[in-house]
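can u pls check wat happens w/ adenosine-5'-triphosphate
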Amino acid sequence: MPKLKTKWVCQNCGYETPKYLGKCPDCGQWSSFVEEVFDSAPNLSNKRVFTDDTKPCLINEIEIDNRIRFSTGIEEFDRVLGGGLVQGSIVLIAGDPGIGKSTILLQTGKYICKNDTKALYVSAEESASQIKLRAKRLGVESNSLYIYSQTNFEAIKKQIEEIKPQVLIIDSIQAVYSEAVTSSPGSVSQIRECTNILLDIAKNKNITVVVVGHVTKEGNIAGPKVLEHMVDTVIYFEGDRYKSYRLLRCMKNRFGTTNEVGVFNMCDDGLHEISNPSEMFLNERTQAVAPGSVVIATNEGTRPLLIEIQSLVGTTSYPSPRRVSNGIDYNRLLQILAVLEKRVGLNLSKQDVYVNVIGGIEIDEPAADLGVALAVATCARDVTVSADTVIVGELGLSGEIRAVNNLEKRIKEAEKLGFKKIVVPSANKVKKEDYTNIEIISVSRLIDAITACVNK
Ligand SMILES: Nc1ncnc2c1ncn2[C@@H]1O[C@H](COP(=O)(O)OP(=O)(O)OP(=O)(O)O)[C@@H](O)[C@H]1O
Ligand SMILES: [Mg+2]
Ligand SMILES: [Zn+2]
């Protein structure tokens, strides 16, 4: 019987120490250490046997391996992946509980298995009949989609050898465990070991592996950052729990661009793609706009998105006025308010300011600044911006409007959705004659933008 030893492992970054520490010296996290048991005897499965006789070669002599991509059957999913799943790669899909991770993978499995491609769906969280129930609801039927309810990694490995699937789905990495490591499922050591085995499977057997990962309260993928480093592609599945739409967002991609966003609607019979999300995000907007409501054109990956921003400004009853931002960076909001006070003379020192991006979208690009400024300014002055106007522009500290990228695409999207005017930075050189159905108003200062588009 080998002697069992324990070590303390930081569940945030994987740092190991022989004794408990309150704060991780590596990543700075507090109370992140958990005691894990490990086998002090040398572990065979951890030992990588050196076998091949590869050697370095000149970059000019390397042949490009045309990695084969195949479609997931869901266009939005393909786009986020950079054109489909890559053979022999590992994709991690992370998201909140109940967001629809198992659903999207089962729907993908249905498409992949259409032309007799074999897929193995391993569920470590649900029984086979539970999955069958969902499959029935989603209309998934296939003769080459295998369902396996199992948590033991050694058993899963055996089935992979036997079935030889082209696609392997693990739902989820936090629930499977390997006997080679004695600590409990979901711990850093288990996740690292299981992912290592999966990497081996993907690279050596050329199997495409899709792994589901849970996220923590803070929104990080549970387990160490190493998980994100090890896989080829990291995709977050997000959404508003109380609304039916879902966003698929790529955070890391070794085979394509990141920051692509896919938009879905969650229905009884599964996820439906939404190819024109701007329409959906704006459909609750009424024609008679209230003060403080503004539509902006933001850029999500390669696609422009029109979104409404709302603001509420009112006299405060607190010692210091409140600033609340939903969907835009808090410090960015403070900066915009400072510019409004200094450059436009808007007095907000006794006013509470709330800013909300409709649809639970997180905007992290500065091109939304001008829209936020106008939302706050119109609400404070009780005036409106016309319902047919879109606002685009970054705000500088001296009140100047700075250029934004991809302006043509934003204008086209606004035109397509029937908007009549768009306010853009004059620093962007736009060929106005290219657009016949939309009036382009170029502005260079915040005060000009306010005069140009505010209805008294
Ligand atoms: N009958 C139904 N009609 C419509 N939507 C449903 C129905 N049943 C489930 N759903 C939706 O599917 C979601 C659950 O999907 P799914 O099981 O794929 O999520 P998950 O991300 O895999 O969750 P978990 O983290 O628990 O594994 C529910 O939150 C709900 O929105
Ligand atoms: Mg699930
Ligand atoms: Zn740490």
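Residues 280-455 form a domain with the Ribosomal Protein S5; domain 2 fold (CATH 3.30.230.10).
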